[in-house]
């Protein structure tokens, strides 16, 4: 009998540049946030696993960590390959980032404006709210953050925009002194946390909770993860199926750790306080899961995960708005009276609303990704053949 030879366990360029685990993580993280917001309105639980819906909001932290990982990965790969420290051309980088996030975002803002005008009519507060959203400064002001009449989920765009502004500088210091740069970011978050926790229960706390300094270590962890991944995929020690299998097994261990933390959060008396105090620990667990699965056995469903990751941005922008509009503006699934059926224990309505809200959000995500994002992608590709899903590729060595 002949022997069966296994394919090479070496990491391909495709795996190094775009690990399937990153697409899986993006789809899962955005999906968990979506589950949280849809569950808030439908109350459709999942039995003993309902705690996953109740805690789904914390996966926003994972989304920010993943953004840092994906943006930094091309630079980490170049450094791991030949020790070249690549610099970012800020203008080119900012342009590509804005072309990526603004078109779909502005479509969602205009839709939210139309609905606000339909429901309440024009007002000075609404125009101020709109101005903050158009300038991506909505999380700076109570009227456009906690009390917005537009897209309540879009506060993360403020965080990401500020991160993008700092990214060229962060790339430079992370490649030159990754340990010290990361420790500096950790120090910023620790200081922010130390000065914010005493304010718990006040408006000041609510306004500080989701500002960029509160995510400083999250960004450091994502960038560290990219450096570790780039180095590990070039290590001969890991280029075998035994080590890749072990990495996958350890990845499930990281998921178990995340699950343990989510159960703690589910029973926490103060949700936001727990999240702020344990954000770094939770993100470390998410980082390990991403890294270990990316270094592990090839994940199945590459095209499916790429598709879900591709529509995740529009899903995130639209899922909460559509859910609230369908329930309270259009009373769908149909209900009448002052009290929504979920608050009256109508389990049939809960199940129907859950399906409707998921279907609406996914449909909007698919259609708008096709109409808006894909159109912009074609325009961008015509102008430059050096773009990838991570942003601007390294352009010069310093």
Q: Can you put this structure into words, describing what you see?
A:
- 70% of the residues lie in helices and 2% in strands.
- By secondary structure, the protein is an all-alpha fold.
- The strands form two sheets. It has a two-stranded antiparallel ribbon with strand order 1-4.
- Helix 2 (20-42) packs antiparallel against helix 4 (59-82).
- The protein is globular and about 65 Å long.
- The termini are far apart.
User: What is the tally of helical segments?
Assistant: 14
Please give the number of β-strands. Answer: 4
Unreliable stretches, pLDDT < 50, 5 or more residues?
387-398
* Distance from first to last alpha carbon: 56 Å
Estimate the helix proportion, in percent.
over 70%
Overall shape: it is globular
Q: What is the H/E string?
A: HHHHEHHHHHHHHHHEEE
Strand content: under 5%
Q: What is the CA-based Rg, rounded?
A: 22 Å
**Quick check: average pLDDT?**
91
At a glance:
Helices cover 70% and strands 2% of the residues. The chain has 398 residues and is mainly α. Helix 2 (20-42) runs antiparallel to helix 4, helix 4 (59-82) packs across helix 10 (216-232) and helix 13 crosses helix 14.
Characteristics:
two-stranded antiparallel sheet, about 400 residues
SSE blueprint and pairings:
Layout lengths: L12 H5 L2 H23 L7 H5 L4 H24 L3 E2 L2 H31 L3 H11 L20 H22 L1 H19 L6 H7 L6 H17 L8 H26 L4 H25 L6 H28 L17 H37 L3 E2 L2 E2 L3 E2 L1
Antiparallel strand pairs: 1-4, 2-3
Helix pairs in contact: 2-4, 2-12, 2-13, 2-14, 4-7, 4-10, 4-12, 5-6, 5-7, 5-13, 5-14, 7-8, 8-10, 10-12, 11-12, 13-14
